[in-house]
Amino acid sequence: MDYFEGVKNAIQAQIKYAQLNPGNNPLYGDVWGFYDTYSPVSEKWMVTGLPAEGDIDEGTISISAVISAIPFCPEASIKCLRTLYHEFKEEGIYTEKGFVMSVNTKNRKLAKKPDDFFQPINVLSIENYRSGMLWELSKKTPEYRASFEKAGLVKFKNQ
To answer: Angle CA(115)–CA(21)–CA(29) in degrees, nearest 5?
Structure first.
């Protein structure tokens, strides 16, 4: 299994967990996205997005986890983001600085700030999904070409 397949499998596991919805959280199924994030419920940093065995899933979704999944599972990611936006737009899920960091589906609380760390990466992921521009540019650099070929991920034609 390569990196991309591993990431897709991890995303599919998150989606399956959300569909199973053992914590009976509203919107789970179409809504998923579990990652280290700020909890709008406890107002503390969550070390993992999913509860450890025996813990309770409080219903917090990391919006950056969903956005960063766009290159790997675009349909599911975009569907999730649209659902979150339509469900929480009145509460302010999207501001002039972008999406807030996280949202809790159970009590409808939002993180008070955007995810400043992941936002630049997320913008690049979205643009690459839309146009493929970043992948096309990266394929032209000797470092990427050598790394991807050495890893056996891509065989480039001589250009």
So the answer is: 65
- Domain range holding 43? 3-131
Structural domain count of the chain: 1
Q: Which two tokens stand for residue 12?
A: 């599919």
Predicted pLDDT at 52: 66
pLDDT band at residue 144 using 50, 70 and 90 as cut-offs? confident
CB 33 within 8 A of CB 49: yes
Rounded to whole angstroms, the Cα distance separating 49 from 34 reads 4
Separation CA 145–CA 34 (nearest Å): 32
Residue 141 DSSP class: S
Residue 82 within a domain: yes
